[in-house]
Amino acid sequence: MNEQTEKVIKTIDESIEKLNKKDFTIYFFVIDTKGTPNGSTQYIYETAKQLTELDYKCEFLHAEKDFVGVGEWMGEDYANMKHNYVESDMVQVSASDFLIIPEIFANVMNQTKKLPCKRIVICQNTNYISEFIPIGNSWVDYGLGDVITTTKAQADEIRSLFPFANINVIPPSIPNFFRDDNAPKKLIVSIVSKNQSDINKIVKQFYWKYPQYKWLTFTDLRGLNREVFADVLRESAFTVWVDDDTYFGYTAVEAMKSGSFVIGKIPNVTPEWMYNENQTDFTNNGIWFSDMRDVHKIIAQGVKLWMEDKMPEVVAEDMQKTAKKYTKESKMKQLKEVFDGLTSNRIYEMEKVKTKIINENK
Amino acid sequence: MENLSVIIPIHEYNEEIEKYLDRAIESIEEQVDTLNINIVIVGEESVLNQLKPQKNNITLLKNSGKTDYCSQVNFAVKQIKTKYFSILELDDFYSKTWFKNVCSHMEHNPNFTAFLPIVKLVDTNEKELGTINEVVWARAFSEELGVIDSTTLENYFDFVTTGGVFRVDEFIECGMLKPSIKLSFWYEYLLRSIENGTKYFVIPKIGYNHVMGRNNSLMESYNDMDGEERMWWINLAKKEYFFKKDRTEKSVYIKE
After folding, report:
1. I want to staple A265 with a disulfide (CB 3.0 to 4.6 A). Which of A30, A149, A195, A242 is the partner?
2. Is A215's Cβ below 8 Å from some Cβ in B?
3. The domain containing residue B39 runs over which residues?
4. Between helices A226-235 and A250-257, what is the axis angle to 10°?
């Protein structure tokens, strides 16, 4: 065995030792939300923070010189985690490290394919997979086969596109500051939609159609930091939720956990928590509609029932059942399983390479 | 809620009133999760003597003094021994969950000392005609959602207080209702009690059902008033609320 080969073997052994001792870094590539709350980014930051609680070391990478970050809406705990600007900060990525790349960054997938670390795609919205990837290319061309996603439906969809992918489903957790304190709710209808036009359609048309409810207060929750957002949900009797493109629907589950009745437009891909255990029928964890023209009538009927204490009890019960599926504890358990597994696989891959090199040099 | 008396003022008795009164009392007995509410029917002895035998939890309070609405209420409040009271007009009725909601709000909003319901207005067949008191839940109207304060009362005079839960000590300390004032006596009391520190919260639930259009009801007796006279009583309330005591035997509106 020549000196060069011995050096490679030594490097592999060092990497294996680091992996065994959890002495490596998981890098998360993140987009700059510029202070605007975003469910996907929230998931990544939550995941990184939860991994640090599991004794993994996590850092963030970004490509924005004037990076704003998530401090305003997620808080300093998240903003103060280590961030690296890839253009100037010295980031030494080694073979024992992991790099997690969101599905939208096809360019990063390509640019990082020669890095020695293990790279994993984190896919939270399959709509974005084909957004920036050149025609004819696939994740396999970038050396990517491991994927983390948030729902089974997305896992199935990814599998249909990339049959080679090794997919881990880690559903999100809803933080504990989303909670129902059992205090009486206020008669406030919170609205969460990305589009101002949706909010206009809901509020203005509601007052036109139901002038008897012209006193009803609607609150637009866009742009609030997460804890204030949680506070408003907690005191709102209803949360109207419109997000056609979502795969998970954080707001709806957050509202359920806060005890706020959800009046929601069914997204293009129905989130799995809308279905019963057998995935055959809707549960009663919200009041669902598919045509925006129906929302005003549903709000009016809902408010009337609520004011008369006649909301069916099953709705509140099913809301709590749904919320209990997405606890931090259950996510931490899954995270541990997945990342312990990814680490073991990485060790196995390295052992295999080492064995191959040794055999070739015999 | 065990520390509450429901006061039902009564001025006359006949078959129609018997029917209404039964419905009113039934609405107290139907309350969810609420025990031991004292029911106090107050009126002249001759009227009370006509009532059919009542159940044990009902007290008949004979009033030998003035029997106008305000005097009846004041008399009854001074007699009761509970911490809280609520006025139920004999032709109205509570919603089943009203006192449960009051208890919950008392526990979670201890800063407030009086709680009003959103009142559903119904006709004599209990058909819904509208609601009242909900206006404080409009963001443009109230500085703090659900709260009645002096600013709120500057522009809005029509809060319905029947069904609301008040503290006996606050009510007496504040000077109670003023019998000399017609129409706007509750409005005057609201202004005066807020000035004296009562904190009002409108629970955003239908807690009380107010029957409109019954012959000989108190509100019906005001139907003859024109807008000018109504405003005169409102303006009188705005002047009188600075005084704890009822300053005149009887205020009289003279059309100019």
Report:
1. A242
2. yes
3. 4-240
4. 50
